[in-house]
Amino acid sequence: MAIARATDNPFFERTLESIIPDMRFIVELARGLLMKQPIKSIVKVQSEHEVIVTAIREKDAEAARKHMAHHLTTAQARLFYGSGRDGAFLWQDETQPEPLEEL
Asked: Is 70 exceeded by the pLDDT of residue 101?
């Protein structure tokens, strides 16, 4: 909610407030699944959060947007693919990954 308020966009804030129950469920589900992963995965998520917060504090909207988009992509990959072969390449770093070759 702090990020929504920081946008100074009342519509965004009200919209986010309306989906809080759903967001809480999703966050708790993702957190529970993440806690079953190796510690390096947890550290990766925390580092993604840190760069987002840093960009917001520095009022760097472009960097915040870029880091948030990366975080959402990697969160989706972690949730649906885990760290196995099919999903790991999606969240290794912030560069655009090359697709895996077909077997």
From this structure: no
In angstroms, what CA-CA distances link 56 with 9, 11, 59, 68?
A: 15, 19, 5, 10
Q: What is the Cα–Cα distance from 84 to 70, expressed in whole angstroms?
A: 19
- The pLDDT tens digits for 55-100 are 999 999 999 999 999 988 888 887 777 655 555 555 555 444 444 4
| Amino acid sitting at position 22 | D
| SS3 readout for the chain | CHHHHHCCCHHHHHHHHHCHHHHHHHHHHHHHHHCCCCHHHHHHHHHHHHHHHHHHHCCCHHHHHHHHHHHHHHHHHHHHHCCCHHHHCCCCCCCCCCCCCCC
Residues 33 and 70: their CA atoms lie apart, in Å, by 19
CA 28, CA 22: separation in Å to the nearest integer?
10
